[in-house]
Amino acid sequence: MATVGKNILDNLTTGMYSDSKVIYREYIQNACDQIDLAIREGILSADEGYVDIYIDSKKRYISIKDNATGIKTTDFIEDVGDIANSNKEIGKNKGFRGIGRLCGLAYCKTLKFSTSYLGESAKSIMTCDAQKMRAMLIENQKYTLDEIWDAIITYSTEPEAKEEHYFEVEMFDINKENTDLLNDVKVRDYLSFVVPVPYKNTFILRSQIYNHAKSINYTIDEYCVRVNGLPIFKEYTTKLKEQSGASLKNYDEISRLEFKDFRDASGNLIAWMWVGLSRFEKQIPIINHMRGLRIRSANIQLGNDDALQPLFKENRGNYYFVGEVFAVSSKLIPNSQRDYFNENETRVLFEDLLREYFYDVLHKLYYEANRVKNDYKRQEEYLSKVAEYQKKETEQGFVNEEERQRLQFDIDKAKKTAEDARKRLDKFDTNDSTSPLSIVRKNIAQKYEADKLKKQAETTTVTLDDNDKKKSFVTSGMSKLSRSERKLVGKILSIITDIAPKDIAEQIIDKIKEEMEELVSDGFSKNKMQILTLLTRLRQVCIDPKIIFDNF
Predict the structure, then answer these.
(1) Residue 295 and residue 406: Cα distance in Å, rounded?
(2) Alpha-carbon gap, residue 369 to 365, rounded angstroms
(3) Neighbours of 357 (CB within 10 A)
(4) Is 401 in contact with 393 (CB distance < 8 Å)?
(5) Does the pLDDT at position 362 exceed 80?
(6) Residue 241 pLDDT level (bands cut at 50, 70, 90)
(7) How far apart are CA 17 and CA 23, in angstroms?
(8) For residue 149, is pLDDT > 80?
(9) Pairing of β 61-66 and β 166-174
(10) Within 10 Å of residue 69's Cβ, how many Cβ atoms?
(11) Over 60: is that where the pLDDT of 551 sits?
(12) Per-residue pLDDT tens for 308-320?
């Protein structure tokens, strides 16, 4: 027979996963399979199974223990000691390759498996010298797989109470480079979207997911998983957050879920999904850990939040959404890294069906949402420009006639743009009020108070008055200045308006008005050189007076 060399162990341990936290997923999925078996055999009722994870960062120790069937003493060496020789079934069990339990060998000095079967008075133990294995793998010497296995594995038994039934994985002396495994906060965050646990009860839309699953006769596998005594839940919420200074604030909200079933030509269910409908204000920021559409097989996540990104018309499309795609077909087989499916005809069909839905529905949702928001914003911009004009007319004054005419021109242009936007919004077919796009448009309309905004934009007008006596300018209130002095100040204000950003220019002009009042009261009109004092003050608002002189 051909010799199986030592490198196969390297591939199945240190080379298998890019993220060390994957070991939790591997051991939990094995535990869940045994919990299912324990329920079928009557050892546990449907809600009695659990997986307890204990992390002791000071001792650099991890324990993962379930209360499922355990393994009989007569089967222990074959079931636990064999490599890639699992008796699990593809398409039925969550794990089936018989290699997942090896993953812990890469991250600790000692890996230990302990188990007891209900009714037996013995505990079976397999201890693996992981540190020795890794040393042998890098030695400049050939070893066979059997030689390494025999060198690092020891078996033993201990007495145990007959009523006990469990399987426990223990990892001693976690490697320094794998300290993340001991961070229980990071572990909880990871597990909350990866392993098969219930939705958090504050996710008020979760009942819709369960109802849809029931309607298509699909059972969502869920288990009790705890980390240091605290249960893990899928951390979905209806609130979408963004960073605002040092804190977070809500910027959008998932108002409804949309469901889609994917079937083959014979009507057989291949997969199904739920996706959250929001206003699609923008790509969901990374601080929302739930962002992205995720693939789930047996309710265990495959890959990361970007696994389905290649199926979108644009890469950015995936992160406008929150949702899950549940693989149903037994022919959708997770690959050994569990980051996607093996290549076959069913996977090609799966991708074709999803790609069509992502292109025809999801892409249009965020694209159209953006267009609708822009149409409402154009009406707001028109009203804002009118308000700006009216404030200058009644309170602040215009810098000069050119500014007044420019603002009037901007208003006319904004009005035309706003009218075109209203026409586009009015053309939308609202007959199907239950379609995803209709729901999204309704959400956006509520935010912008569409009816009120439309009425206000339609009735707001500005009349251009050519009567010089009624025109209001900033220098009009500087009656103690001579005509030439007012002209000089007006020139300065005009230059500031041209060279400074709008908000800064307004601050500068307000400051100049204050300064002028002081200078006038001190007899500014009798000493024109004090205009230099005014220019010097501009340095306080980051304007170089030289720019003013250069523009005269």
Answers:
(1) 55
(2) 6
(3) 17
(4) no
(5) yes
(6) very high
(7) 9
(8) yes
(9) antiparallel
(10) 24
(11) no
(12) 999 999 989 999 9
Check pLDDT > 50 for residue 549.
no
Q: What angle do CA 417, 420, 423 make, to 5 degrees?
A: 150
Residue 290 CA, chain-centre distance (Å), reads 5
Strands 322-327, 292-297: pairing kind: parallel
Instruction: Round to the nearest angstrom and report the end-to-end CA distance of the chain.
Output: 95
> Which contiguous run of DSSP H or E holds residue 350?
helix 345-357
Residue 401, C-beta contacts closer than 8 angstroms, at least 6 positions apart: 471, 473
DSSP conformational letter for 117: -
What are residue 297's DSSP bridge partners? Answer: 300, 327
Is residue 393 pLDDT above 90, yes or no? no
Please compute the mean of the pLDDT values over residues 506-511 and round it to a whole number.
67
- Among the listed residues 284, 297, 229, the one whose alpha carbon sits nearest the alpha carbon of residue 91: 297
Q: Is this structure's pTM higher than 0.85?
A: no
Contact 397, 476 (CB under 8 A): yes
Alpha carbon dihedral 356, 361, 363, 368, in 10-degree steps, equals 150
Adjacent-strand bridge partners of 326:
272, 296
From residue 458, give the alpha-carbon distance in Å to each of 29, 133, 390, 417: 61, 78, 17, 12
Task: In whole angstroms, give the CA distance from residue 134 to residue 9.
Answer: 9
For residue 269, pLDDT over 60 is answered with: yes
Sheet hosting strand 153-159, strand order edge to edge: 153-159, 122-129, 108-116, 166-174, 61-66, 50-56, 224-227, 230-231
- Mean pLDDT of all residues belonging to the chain: 83
Q: 545's torsion region: left (phi>0), alpha (psi -120 to 50) or beta? A: alpha
**Which candidate, 278, 274, 276, 254, places its Cα nearest to that of 262?**
274
**What 8-state DSSP symbol labels residue 277?**
E
pLDDT at 222 > cutoff 80: yes
Half-sphere exposure of 451 (CA within 13 A, CB side): 2
**Hey, CA dihedral for 103, 108, 109, 112, is it positive or negative?**
negative
Element (H, E) at 549: helix 545-550
Q: How far apart are CA 95 and CA 26, in angstroms?
A: 8
Please check whether residue 33 is in contact with residue 95, taking contact to mean a CB–CB distance below 8 angstroms: yes
CA distance 60 to 15: 22
Q: Over range 484-511, report the average pLDDT.
A: 67
- Could you tell me if residue 546 is left (phi over 0), alpha (psi between -120 and 50 degrees) or otherwise beta? alpha
Question: What tokens appear for 465 in the block?
Answer: 């008055």
Report the percent of the chain where pLDDT is more than 90.
52
Tokens for 497, please give them: 């308006």
Q: How confident is the model at residue 96 (pLDDT cuts 50, 70, 90)?
A: very low
